[in-house]
Amino acid sequence: MQFRLTLRPTSTQTLVPFNYAYRLSAFIYSVLADADAQYAQFLHNQGYEYSSTRRFKLFTFSDLIMPQARVDARAGGLWVNSPTIEWVVSFYVDQAAQHFIMGLFQDQKCVIASPRHRAEFIVERVEALTLNLTENTLHLRTLSPVVIAQKDERGMDQYLHPADEAFGPLLVSNLLAKWRSLPLVADREDWIADSLTYRFVQGRSEPKSRLVTIKENSREETKVRGYYGFSFELMGPKEILELAVLAGVGRYNAEGFGCLGI
């Protein structure tokens, strides 16, 4: 299920720091923990296991959608210049949980804080976005940067452009690993793997890249590069297409990467 949240700033002057995604991830965990501490702890500490080194949280979220935001490099953020902003949050969970999760976010206070900034918002509205999959081909657009990387000869990650010939196979491989992390799907692996394909759609403008700092100002701080502002087609079984939209594609989904819209 996907939700569109409408956020209202509590101040007339609100500056959102550039590297805000990690704070939004922490907000999601805190909201879930208030309602179901065991589930939140499972997602944060464990997730769905594909292998001993690969686990998935199976949720993601978009960039903040801020009309007319003003970039202020000196202040290190973006000034909110609209009465409200929007945010899409997406979970791969049972549909029966839809109303439960909607209720969790309604009227919550979302705080995006850093050593230099503090932005506060009230969740004014939560709207469930209908996901009706009738075809085996989806035309998708990025709502946050997609991170796809492969190791070079030194073992360093090289972040790939969406038109790179290795981008599609790696995106598909990652999506299949997410699928296989779910219970009771092992007997369906072969037909899934053989029928899933990616096609980059060239738009009027080139995809853009963004270097994002995760866990800024901590010992675990790391920088990753993702691409956004592009569209692609994903062809395959509806179950996998649904997983792509609700859990995200590529790496670092629970940190706000790989969120998609149809």
Q: Structural class, from secondary structure content?
A: alpha+beta
Q: Output the number of helix runs.
A: 6
Biggest sheet layout: 5 strands, antiparallel
Strand content: 25-35%
Number of strands: 18
Widest beta sheet: strand line-up: 5-8-1-10-9
Taking all Cα atoms into account, the compactness measure Rg is 18 Å
Order of helices and strands: EEHHEEEEEEHEEEEEHHEEEEHE
Low-confidence parts lasting 5 or more residues at pLDDT below 50? none
Q: What is the end-to-end distance? A: 13 Å
Mean pLDDT: 89
Percent of residues in helices comes to 10-25%
Principal-axis shape? globular
Which helices and strands occur, and which strands form pairs?
Blueprint: E1 2-9, E2 15-17, H1 21-35, H2 37-45, E3 48-51, E4 54-56, E5 59-61, E6 70-72, E7 77-79, E8 85-91, H3 98-105, E9 109-113, E10 118-129, E11 137-142, E12 149-151, E13 157-159, H4 167-180, H5 189-194, E14 197-201, E15 208-214, E16 222-228, E17 231-235, H6 238-247, E18 260-261
Antiparallel strand pairs: 1-8, 1-10, 2-7, 3-4, 5-8, 6-7, 9-10, 11-17, 11-18, 12-13, 14-17, 15-16
Helix pairs in contact: 1-2
Task: Give a summary of the structure in a few sentences.
Helix content is 24%, strand content 34%. By secondary structure, it is α+β, with helices and mostly antiparallel strands.
